[in-house]
């Protein structure tokens, strides 16, 4: 079986003066076409380094990353950059403040040579409509938009080139709870409509509970646990995963019971 994306024995080592830091340590995992794989962990767990290696920003120090069965080169070709896109954490810093919304969206089409000028202009309008923004946003600057609107523009930009895989690096952490829920709903709808594949990077398990198919739990650069989302929440195997779930805010009786059971198990093993 050919996976959309595969990491095999991937490590990343950074040199800090005379000291070496292993940010990612011997990680192997696959991403299947059409799924949402969440990579979760606290700060320093290696999840953002994994994202940067998938995007080609960092080359692996060891191991390999494959796309549709072929090993990705360190210097990514244009077709790879088109196929794998990024939505960053802070939409304000990810959008050029000197460019209008329309210019930011057209830039991706220009770089990849998609369509002629009239086609690109029409496509920008359709992209805005697809992410729930009116066409007159084309002329607005990023500073004139709310956080949620800017993140919708960032999502539209990632979709402009008909990408296959979108890496979402903490895409809702800078948003308030209500806007966060709306953006997550939009991502779920776009994934279904376009048959997109997501790698969702986050420190918050509660964010991915209703969007991810599988969850990969990282700590200190190592992959501790990888399971379907419902199994991660119902029967987490690693103590670190249990601690993460124990910190998730709960609102239903079933969730309260799960939290209490996890805490009892943690205390019993202490």
From TrEMBL:
Q: Which residues form the ABC transporter domain?
A: 5-245
Family annotation (PROSITE patterns): ABC_TRANSPORTER_1, ABC_TRANSPORTER_2
Protein location: Cell inner membrane
Which family, according to the similarity comment?
Belongs to the ABC transporter superfamily.
Q: Which residues form a coiled coil?
A: none
For this UniProt record, the keywords arranged alphabetically read as follows:
ATP-binding, Nucleotide-binding, Transport
Q: Name the PANTHER family for this protein.
A: ABC TRANSPORTER, ATP-BINDING PROTEIN, TRANSPORT ATP-BINDING PROTEIN
Q: Name one GO biological process term.
A: peptide transport
Q: What is this protein called?
A: ABC transporter ATP-binding protein
Which SUPFAM superfamilies does the annotation name?
Answer: P-loop containing nucleoside triphosphate hydrolases
Q: Which GO terms describe its cellular component?
A: plasma membrane
Known Gene3D superfamilies for this protein?
Answer: P-loop containing nucleotide triphosphate hydrolases
UniProt keyword tRNA processing, yes or no: no
Annotated membrane topology = Peripheral membrane protein
Offer an example of a GO molecular function term for this protein. ATP hydrolysis activity
